[in-house]
Task: inverse folding
């Protein structure tokens, strides 16, 4: 649930299909705007010990409360040790023709429990993730103050 003064949709849905180990495709639905957005991510470069992974994709501009619509992105991601991951990207917001620089830092506390800081190019969002067989639950503090939850179910 979100306070009434946020620009975020109170409910969003995503349906993704893993085509292969490099490519996912799907659709996202924004309940507040009654709009569908395409979602896809393709890993064009595999990570090695000396090279980060490189992905291109499109999705809604979630979690930003300042941006609506879809974004095109390119992201570099690399492990910074056994339990820490860093990503940095460039995102082009189609509706406003703005650029953002999203980034994240994730740390696995133990098997099935991790924490992250996600920067969407505008605000910083702390996240706690609980992974279980067939499900993932994320507790999110949008901009460090507005609570939210994300639930993912998968096979």
Result:
């Amino acid at each position: 649930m979100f306070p009434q003064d946020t620009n975020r949709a109170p409910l969003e849905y995503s349906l993704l299909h893993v085509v292969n180990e490099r490519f996912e495709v799907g659709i996202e639905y924004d309940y507040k705007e009654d709009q569908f957005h395409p979602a896809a991510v393709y890993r064009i470069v595999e990570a090695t010990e000396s090279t980060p992974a490189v992905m291109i994709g499109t999705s809604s501009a979630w979690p930003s409360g300042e941006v609506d619509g879809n974004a095109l992105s390119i992201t570099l991601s690399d492990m910074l040790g056994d339990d820490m991951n860093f990503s940095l990207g460039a995102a082009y917001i189609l509706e406003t023709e703005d650029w953002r620089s999203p980034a994240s830092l994730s740390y696995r506390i133990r098997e099935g429990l991790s924490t992250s800081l996600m920067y969407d190019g505008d605000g910083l969002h702390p996240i706690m993730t609980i992974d279980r067989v067939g499900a993932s639950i994320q507790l999110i503090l949008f901009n460090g103050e507005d609570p939210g939850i994300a639930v993912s179910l998968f096979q």
Remarks:
- The chain has one domain: 12-153.
